[in-house]
Automatic annotation (TrEMBL):
It comes from the Bacteria. Gene3D superfamilies: Ribonuclease H-like superfamily/Ribonuclease H. One of its GO terms (molecular function) is nucleic acid binding. NCBIfam families: transpos_IS3. This is Transposase IS401. Residues 106-269 form the Integrase catalytic domain. One of its GO terms (biological process) is DNA integration. It comes from Alteromonas mediterranea (strain DSM 17117 / CIP 110805 / LMG 28347 / Deep ecotype). InterPro entries: HTH-like_dom, Integrase_cat-core, RNaseH-like_sf, RNaseH_sf, Transpos_IS3, Transposase_IS3/IS150/IS904.
Length: 275
């Protein structure tokens, strides 16, 4: 075999002896087990970077290369994102707001700027529409609403939930696309009532609302596209569980130095108190 492969016998037996003297890593089996547990807990959504951070937080100082090797050995791979098309209807005659936010997605404090949008989820009963409100400071979902109709009430309910839970001070900016729901009289009255400054993306420019578009992509990649919802109620319960039990409380965000939104807000609050 050595002759066929062009390898000298002495080198072959030297390699065999070196392999026999390598001491087994006592943590290796533990690492494989943790990789499988983290992958399962994240619903197989963590790639190498987040898996490495998760293992580091558990006390295992592994790098990217070893994490990649461990994931391969454990048979763990991340789910890939499918493409989705935009369905915003901005062809209406209602007034729109200027782009006050202007792609400034780096809020310095909580409840300084919210971004919102609507997406759709297919069920065996028909479409389910989801509206969300995200706080740019922590990327936390602070308001949401789901219904079988994509109307002004849907987005009003999502924002009302955010305002009720967070109780922001005067000066909050609310940014969305130019969809008819956000330009409706009902929604504009809600902004006026709570003294919220309205802001809207430029027509046909999804990058002006990139943060919420990114969340919808993540939601569909990590959860929706792997489900076959038999009813709207089943979809609502699953999405609610994803938002509250995973996305806000557990999922590591690279923008937040690989912390969850809840953890990031708690850490920033503690730093402010200490200062």
């Amino acid at each position: 075999m050595c002759e066929i492969l062009g390898v000298s016998r002495c080198n072959y037996y030297s390699a065999v002896r070196r392999k026999e003297h390598i001491e087994p890593d006592p943590q290796h089996d533990e690492l494989i087990e943790w990789v499988q547990k983290v992958a399962d807990a994240s619903d197989f959504t963590y790639g190498v970077r987040r898996m490495k951070r998760a293992l580091n937080s558990l006390g295992y100082p592994v790098g990217k290369q070893r994490t990649r090797a461990l994931m391969k050995e454990a048979g763990v791979s991340v789910r890939r994102r499918r493409k989705y098309k935009v369905t915003t209807n901005s062809d209406h005659q209602q007034p729109v707001f200027d782009n006050v936010l202007s792609r400034d997605f780096d809020a310095q404090k909580p409840d300084q700027a919210y971004v919102s949008d609507i997406t759709y989820i297919w069920t065996q009963e028909g479409w389910l529409y989801l509206a969300v409100v995200i706080d740019l400071f922590s990327r936390k979902i602070v308001g949401w609403s789901m219904a079988s109709r994509m109307n002004a009430q849907l987005v009003c309910d999502a924002l009302t939930m955010a305002l009720w839970q967070r109780k922001p001070k005067v000066g909050l900016i609310h940014h969305s696309d130019r969809g008819s729901q956000y330009a409706s009289r009902q929604f504009r009255q809600l902004l006026t009532q709570y003294k919220v400054t309205g802001s809207m993306s430029r027509k046909g420019d999804c990058w002006d609302n990139a943060v919420v578009e990114s969340f919808f992509g993540t939601l569909k990649q990590e959860r929706v596209q792997w489900r076959h919802y038999q009813s709207r109620r089943a979809a609502q319960q699953d999405i609610l569980q994803y938002i509250t039990m995973f996305y806000n409380s557990q999922r590591m965000h690279s923008y937040l130095d690989y912390k969850s939104p809840n953890q990031y807000e708690a850490d920033m609050a503690n730093l402010q108190k200490a200062a």
